[in-house]
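Much of what follows relies on a compact textual record of a protein's fold. An example makes this concrete, so a full record is given next.
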Amino acid sequence: MGSTQKNVLAALTAALLWAFAFVAPAAVRPASELLLVTGRYSLFGLCGLYVLWRGRRQLGLMPTRRILFGLYIGFVGYFVFYVCVSYSATMDSGFITAVVVGSSPITIAVAGNFAEKRMSWRELIAPVVLIIVGLTLLSVSDLIQGDDLEGANDSLFAILLALGAMLTWSYFVVRNAQSQRTWETKPDPTLWAGLVAMGAGGASMVLLPFAIASTPAETFEPYPLFKIIAWCVFLGVIASWWGTYIWVKAAQGIPVPLVGPLLATETIFGAILSLPVERRLPTWSEVTGALFVLAGIGVYMFFDVKNSRTRNGGNGGSGGHGGDDDERSSDASGVPVVT
């Protein structure tokens, strides 16, 4: 029991580290969102490059198509994802962005259900409806509060960007899980994480000069410059790389039913942390929308846990099928589960 509690605490620590990704875009102003993204993932990519260099012999044995695929999903699932998150958070609210992205377990479940029937479609109706209601409340929060039309339009565009981030992350998780499940020889998790990091880092390194050139001049004054560098180091090395290491180690000792809820805490932390940075309290429509989204995720996880126990024949995941579920949960969180 003590070991499980320590692993849960470690997983929560990783989720908290990742949650700062929703806070950073507003915290680094006047630096541009693109500078934050490229700075963060350039450092993350260098960590991946170091891992790939150390494992270059194993990398040489990996088929080229798998190497390219790892780089590709790293670019889409990390770089494109965080571009959407950053612009969404600064256009409207890190709180709303975190809540919208937090509904990704449902899109992952729907997409995954097409490829591998895990639960009845009927069981997905209630979670999907709850989340749609919640997202609708979040989308029209400015109109409900009586704000001007321009502010409402910005909020709606920010919601679209957040939905883009949610769909991008869902695509990454599903494709990563599907591909590795169909491969006869699975890549080493550390080496695979290095490839994904390089996929995000490669694009960032290419765009970093443009991001610097398009950043407001006041960003390069001493304090703003120190702030953006500190955030890039924190997000790229501590949150992304070290946070992933903590999660992978902790997940090995966490019961399967707890994996989903622990991953979901990332966006809950992100929503809570965003409010002090934005110096405000959430509106009633934001709170109501967030509660609907959380309720949808909760209902989905209830059915998922119930179905997992049914598949395991009541063995609590300790039998042969339990190994399959452990593998599924690891893949579903995308081995490198950084955001």
Remarks:
- The chain has one domain: 2-332.
